[in-house]
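Quick question: what would this complex look like in 3D?
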Amino acid sequence: MKPALKVINLRVNHTDHEIAVKPHHTLARVLREQLGLTGTKIGCEEGDCGACTVLLDGRPVSSCLVLAVQAQGHEITTIEGLAENGQLHPLQQAFVEHGAIQCGFCSPGMLLAAKALLDDNPHPDEGQIRHAISGNLCRCTGYQKIVEAIQDAAGKLSGDAGRGERS
Amino acid sequence: MTVVRFDVIQPRTVAEAVAALQQAGELAQPVAGGTDILRDLRLGSKKLELLVSLDRVADLAGVRQEDDGAFTIGATTTMAHLAGSTPVVERLSALADAAGWMGSPQVRNRATFGGNLCNARPCADTAPPAMVLGAELELQGPAGSRRVPAGEFMTGPGQTVRRGEELLRAVRFPAPAPHSGSAFFTVTNRKAVEITITSAAAWLRLEEAGGPVVEARVALGSVAPRPIRAPGAEAELVGKVPDEAVLQAAARAAVADATPIDDLRAAAVYRRWMVEAMVKRALLRALERCGRQTP
């Protein structure tokens, strides 16, 4: 017996999508295969690697361990939602400038984990940054360049906010 | 990976969830965060036809302190919530220690207290804290609810006294006593996304600040088929002023309470050494915290 499709409303990157999903399908799979948002990578499918990290109501989760039907009613942010008006997010720009992207497979998840950190704590120290990305594996960079990129982006983001307050 | 199909329903109330579990029988199970069960289904270590998702059930998540100081923690409260809750950090410290360490940020944002207990792994990190803090689990069945002490809930690897049609609704903790404190320590290979090799939780209640131990509870994880209490360690503490030598003797006594096995993660002999180390650390930290718990 095949379970019936479920019609759900998924709100991804501020856009609502009404779609019919299989009940056993994960959010990661639906994002990639039904919404074409292939920036979300599927690595281990066990919650160990962090490649499939997306934000659910601003908090990082492994989208391979979230059922698509459970994501209904939540605000989902994928890597496609970071750039605005053709401008890379300061975190993305910093990753490019610091060489924090090598093969790129971990980058979407790493960037979203970093964004959740900076949204919550604009001035993290190195330990807090390493803690925030502790659920994201990178096999290329050795993490140092990623940590530096996040520190740089944090400085630029909070610098901008500071200027805004003074003006 | 093999394709594993199952249906999912999302009831709105505890009663609806219990009715669905009762109707579906053995091939159904509740799911909250899904961080264990979705992995188990995909790997084929569990076979189910129906998941009863608890994400829509009202009032199952949250930390509530009653007028008498007792705590009720909803079964679907996440690890991140526990670790970030000031009353849990201050009053149920061992639980906050365990919840704040487990998995990764991504896992802690989804994994729930109830799921960790019901999944019933011998290494379940919230179980030793629940046991030393005197927790009781509230199970809701079709005919009513019952309470089970945390130490009697798990019966073996993956096994609990929860009947298939019952839902773990909440975990209740008695009001923390004056001059009491608790802590949890674990040893793993890495600092994150790891499974406990050996863990220990300790809870101490002193007669007064600097005074002798009136009551002590020590529990161990990952060194027996289920999380266990360490009565040998507890007996070494009661009635004594907890100085370095007393804590060391208790930690050493805990080793005899453990029955670890060799497995992928560590050898039994290493686990025995770690019992002593983790119990010592947990006792020292618990003792420190007794000082800050005033009436």
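Answer marked as accepted. The two ends of chain A are 64 Å apart (CA to CA).
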